[in-house]
Design brief:
By secondary structure, the protein is an alpha/beta fold. It is built from 11 helices and 29 strands. The longest helix is centred in the middle third of the chain and has 12 residues. The mean pLDDT is 94.
Amino acid sequence: MVETKRTQPLARDAMAYVLAGGRGSRLKELTDRRAKPAVYFGGKTRIIDFALSNALNSGIRRLGVATQYKAHSLIRHLQRGWNFLRPERNESFDILPASQRVSETQWYEGTADAVYQNIDIIESYGPEFMVILAGDHIYKMDYELMLRQHVDANADVTVGCLEVPRVEATGFGVMHVDKKDNIIAFVEKPADPPGIPDKPDFALASMGIYVFRTKFLMELLRQDAADPNSSRDFGKDIIPAIVKGGKAVAHRFAKSCVRSTQEALPYWRDVGTVDAYWEANIDLTDITPELDLYDSDWPIWTYAELKPPAKFVHDEDGRRGEAISSLVSGDCIISGASLRRSLIFTGARINSYSKLEEVVMLPDCTVGRNSRLSRVVLDHGVRIPEGLVVGEDPELDAKRFRVSEKGICLITQPMIDRLEA
């Protein structure tokens, strides 16, 4: 049967399902109390806000989020910031913890199982398409364009892909494609990644974004759940099975990446290590950053707290409240301190004679007088004592704090408490 050309957006008939259960262990202490998708990013938002905002801005009005590990911070954020979708407008927003809906003993066993355990909820909404998303990456993307390719190609699955230099693709799941971007093989972390026909020095790496027709996906998930040898994972089981027995198509991120006039290249980041997290946040302080958070045509929705404006006080030599090439959020008081190339979240109190350079400061931190911090990430609520110096003596820093491969210091309140004990 030939499908007639639609006039209304496909996103109207789609549900976005965000997989947000990851432990994020490479972020070390930043994920001791929160899942990776709940980690703060960019001064106001959390990582998961990007996938959810992409869905909303694309026109998708049915959203579901599957949570698992250390989910309280994430669930609280979602309840506060994403509760504006209304059932009476055929909109929905579901938070779906691993609640033993299928078995009374099991958590989500894998990414596919995280969808399978909620089949009844999904089917009750009757979406024609499912857009499966990872909840832990920073990017802007119009999923409508990916949905359109999926329908036009009559694909069983469409996989969102990044063009990555072949030498850097060994850590990804890589799509081996033909000249029409049909996926011939799916290779997990290959030693010698297959190149793209039109760009042989590049490989197509999976973004963890998949589009299916809902009916087809549900049948596949039920079959997978009945297979005792399956690991219940999209990348390991579901996608390879379709590549072998169906039609799998690659969707190149560059085709649907949303860019303002300020953004030269497609932007996608996995901020899954302390170094990558620090770099992506500090990059936002550039005059023209690679990621434009000021693009009002594609806003990043989040929980917007009611806070007073940022305040800068004192104007004496050596005691001047100032911020140069920095982002400073609401309810911050910079009292006679100097900031350079730093990103400061809500509620900071930075006291006189302190100097901060290349610091990422999560909400509600306090910095005592005469402190000097350089190339540092401060976790939520850290209180830096007066006169503390970090970033000038690598050996001393390594004894007191978490120091990354590239020399970034991650500081949490328990680390400070041990110093003062």
